[in-house]
Design a protein that fits this description.
CATH class of the largest domain: Alpha Beta
Strand order of the largest sheet: 2-1-3-4-6-5-7-8
Largest sheet: 8 strands, mixed
Bound molecules: flavin-adenine dinucleotide
Number of helices: 11
Radius of gyration: 22 Å
Low-confidence stretches: 346-357
Number of domains: 2
Number of strands: 16
Mean pLDDT: 91
Length: 357
């Protein structure tokens, strides 16, 4: 199933495992089950710490498999053969289950651990979807941290009847405890903010107690990040509040001709922006939506959470967003049939060969 090159790469990664892993397969007589069994056997052949077992479970999707520690309930399940864009999600799930640290800060890990309740997540994805791995990887990490969170990543192409019955119109689409939870790209922070409403209140209280900033930037795209860096470098008390740090670059994999960067990927570019900003003393307040600016000697930015931030100077760098045309159902069906297309995308496609942005 895996070619020699991929096996070599995977073998090197799997040397980082410090704990045993059990892959539990739920299979039938179909071709896809045989394909999955081949993949799991290949993986197990690359590390002595990985074993594969087959189990019967009438309620389980087939083919599917779980990744967990031997003898313990597993929170991660793939109802798919996770190749394509999801191969990275598979590798990360193996490494993290096997003891490799996750790229999450301690406060976030603690917040996930403290979530109360039982959370059964299902994510529908496609192997060619570029926005899906972030959601799959976020929910897998959450399932590893908190045993009351379970996540199944489902390849819609293998489970068409479900896709139709549940009216999944776009990927990624998430369900929580059988109810629609949202669609489109989202990471751990966004999912947590939706789940842990108590945390939103705590965050609002913390934000409300911030001192007056010299400069407060609203917007965390490339423009807001640039302002923050130049402001903080001058020793000015700088805050940056953003609904989604990174901005529009997160909506695309292909970023070209951003001055000095000939070609990169959107998420990579956004991570570089974040690292650059964090190199300076900037108070970054992510996943916070500003709703109102009240100008004055000290300006106020009112956030959706109810908190009010104060600053001597406010800089708005809120970029662009998809324009709505206010037709019934537009918001409800966003990502489920309603989509946007930029003039940039259209012109770039037709003139890609000669275009230089
Ligand atoms: C699909 C796509 C492909 C692209 N490809 C390229 C490319 O190849 N090369 C290139 O150079 N450019 C490309 N661009 C354009 C590029 O992404 C933008 O020019 C750039 O992101 C603009 O930066 P910005 O900081 O002004 O705004 P944005 O990136 O739009 O950032 C705005 C910020 O403000 C925040 N915000 C907005 N409203 C609020 C609010 N009320 N409260 C709090 N925060 C708020 C947002 O969350 C975000 O953090 C592409 C854009 C898209 C969508």
């Amino acid at each position: 199933m895996l070619d020699a090159n991929l096996k070599n790469q995977l073998k090197a990664y799997l040397e980082k495992l410090t704990r045993p892993i059990e892959l539990v397969a739920f299979l039938d007589d179909g071709d896809k089950s045989r394909e999955l069994k081949g993949l799991l056997d290949d993986i197990a052949s690359l590390s002595t710490r990985i074993s594969v077992v087959e189990k019967e479970d009438a309620g389980a999707r087939r083919p599917s498999f779980t990744i967990g520690e031997p003898g313990k309930p597993a929170g991660i399940r793939f109802a798919s053969i996770p190749m394509g864009h999801e191969f990275t999600s598979l590798v990360l799930a193996l490494l993290q289950t096997g003891g490799h640290p996750m790229k999450l800060d301690d406060a976030t890990i603690e917040q996930i651990r403290n979530l109360e309740g039982d959370f059964e997540f299902e994510t529908y994805f496609s192997l060619s979807c570029q926005n899906c791995p972030e959601v799959v990887q976020a929910l897998n990490m959450m399932a590893l941290i908190n045993p009351r969170i379970r996540h199944v990543a489902i390849d819609g192409a293998l489970f068409q009847q479900e896709v139709e019955a549940r009216q999944v119109m776009a990927v990624p689409t998430m369900f929580l405890n059988g109810e629609s939870f949202g669609s489109g790209r989202s990471g751990v922070k966004e999912i947590l903010a939706k789940l842990d409403t108590g945390s939103a209140e705590r965050a609002a209280k913390e934000l409300a107690s911030k001192p007056v900033f010299d400069v407060l930037i609203v917007g965390g795209g490339p423009a807001g990040a640039a302002v923050a860096i130049y402001s903080a470098r001058k020793g000015i008390a700088t805050g940056l509040v953003a609904e989604r740090f990174g901005g529009q670059v997160l909506d695309t994999m292909a970023i070209e001709n951003f001055i000095s960067v000939q070609e990169t990927e959107g998420p990579k570019f956004a991570t570089a922006l974040e690292q650059h900003v964090k190199h300076y003393e900037v108070d970054v307040m992510d996943v916070q939506r500003a709703e109102k600016l009240v100008p004055g000697r000290v300006n106020e930015i009112h956030l959706a959470s109810g908190a009010v931030l104060k600053a001597k100077t406010v800089i708005l760098s809120t970029g662009a967003r998809w324009r709505e045309i206010n037709v019934p159902g537009e918001r409800e069906y966003r990502g489920r049939g309603v989509a946007w297309r930029t003039a940039r995308t259209a012109t770039a496609r037709s003139s890609r060969a000669s275009a230089s942005r």
